[in-house]
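Title: Prediction job returns without error message
Component: structure pipeline
Severity: low
Priority: P3
Assignee: unassigned

Description:
Job completed but the reporter wants confirmation the result is attached to the right record. Sequence as submitted:
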Amino acid sequence: MKRFKFYTLAVAMMSLLIIPAVQAQPGGQRPGGGQRPGGGQFGGRGGGQQNNISISQLLQSEKVRAEAEIFDEQVQEIQEAVNKIRSEARANQGERPNFRELTDEQRRELFEKFRKSSEETQKKVNAAVSDILLPPQLERLEEIRLQLLGTGALLLEPIQKKLKISDTQKAKFEEITNGTREKSQEMFSGVREQFQQLGGDREKIQALMAEIREKMQAVQKEAEEKIVGTLTAAQKKQFEGMKGKPFEISREDLRPQRPEGQRPGQGQRPQGQRPGQGQRPGGQPGQRPSL
């Protein structure tokens, strides 16, 4: 059992290295196939596109809020608007059926219903955020978002429209991402057997993980270079300009923080207080928003 758990953890860690170009496939397609219900673009809570980043995620970061010069009052107003929109959406969903009792066709229909509902909700969230934030604030958030997305942003439809990506270029993008997905699948195809052969030897397992990680990073770099190489000189210049002034932040910085040493579900917090309290932009103490 321990060996199986360690293998599962190892594969999960390796899966984090799948290239952004693959993750940004339209419709939320995962490496290895399958669709994720839900979609949405900039401003989504999570969205169907794994590589996409939302305004909600960006606003979770105190560092981002300070960089975009977003006021506490705006954060509070956005949170109230988002909570209201999502509360109304949940009320309109009705009672969810038992998935185990549904046929495959019924599940597909239900997922499609959820997807459309999620997109509609997200449109309302986007509109609310746009009404509350000032144009310069939204512009800076978009620049930061593009920096975090990197090459993966080139596979998102709004970005392709701005860059006037041609159908020929889109076809090339698809060819590159499909080839990269196939390489990724090949790398993972024999991982289970490799881990089993190591018999739980942690040092050998860690060495194998490092080897796979190195290979995945090489595949990622190759795909990114090919995708960027598909752009014209003018498109490259425009894309770099869309990113604005460099801003140092990682995806890890956007994840909600828990008190050190506390596992998910452990401990209780005071009524109305969210984990991760700290300083808001402007140096005033306050609760971290959860949008």
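Comment from assignee: result matches the submitted record. The chain has two domains: 1-24+156-245, 35-150.
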